[in-house]
Amino acid sequence: GAVVSQHPSWVICKSGTSVKIECRSLDFQATTMFWYRQFPKQSLMLMATSNEGSKATYEQGVEKDKFLINHASLTLSTLTVTSAHPEDSSFYICSANLLAGLYNEQFFGPGTRLTVL
Amino acid sequence: AQSVTQLGSHVSVSEGALVLLRCNYSSSVPPYLFWYVQYPNQGLQLLLKYTTGATLVKGINGFEAEFKKSETSFHLTKPSAHMSDAAEYFCAVSDWGAGNMLTFGGGTRLMVKP
User: Rounded distance, CA B91 to CA B37, Å?
Assistant: First the structure.
């Protein structure tokens, strides 16, 4: 089946540093990937839609200069949290869209837990 | 605009009892509906989905859901709960034309008592 990986699975960093999270589709190509944020005991909030070879589309209220998204290949999207602060601590989940003919499904990565001290 | 409402943020059932998790949606176009399960500190796993055709959809782990257009509902059921079913469940809706962007409900935590 379609597998999406995320790296790292967890990261702890100091306030003010930048953190990069990778999202890879391991056995399929994904022109579209999505980045979500999930606070404890809450639902997933879509942050941005990442399209291969073009700029990401950010949801309202998400700072694009703080959450840099790059989708340089059909199997890799990265989310960089710049100048991280404690309020950025959260569970970040990516998904990759598998589109083949009439088949259209989103596969989720296992998530990355970010803790900013 | 699409939205999803999951009634009951917490549901507790006894092992062997019926599981019913409620989901209502609003959509301006024919919806694609999904149920996902999330275990602690993990990503989401698709349980089942409705796209077109038969309104009763069967998924993995014995779960099923029925799309009722007149009630704008897509409730998730399982005849007999198992301890391993304890998890967070999310209902979601998408518009095919929107690149499969999902809108999630608030989630329901299912607890299974022995």
Answer: 9
**Higher confidence at residue B1 or residue A70?**
A70
CB contact under 8 A, B99 and A97: yes
B91 to each of A64, A102, A107, B75, how far by Cα in Å? 28, 22, 15, 9
Amino acid at A61: G
CA distance B56 to B27: 19
Average pLDDT value for residue range B93-114? 85
What pLDDT does residue B35 have? Answer: 96
Give yes or no for a contact between B23 and B91, defined as CB atoms under 8 angstroms apart. Answer: yes
- Contact between chains at B36 and A108 (C-beta distance less than 8 A): yes
| Residue A92 sits at the chain B interface (C-beta within 8 Å) | no
Q: Which strand (E) or helix (H) includes residue B9?
A: none
Is the model more confident about B96 or about A60? Answer: A60
Beta pairing, strands B108-113 & B10-14: parallel
pLDDT of residue B2: 83
pLDDT at B83 over 90: yes
Interface probe with B: pick from A106, A112, A113, most Cβ of B within 10 Å: A106
Classify residue A28 by burial, with Cβ atoms within 10 Å: 0-12, 13-18, 19+.
Answer: middle
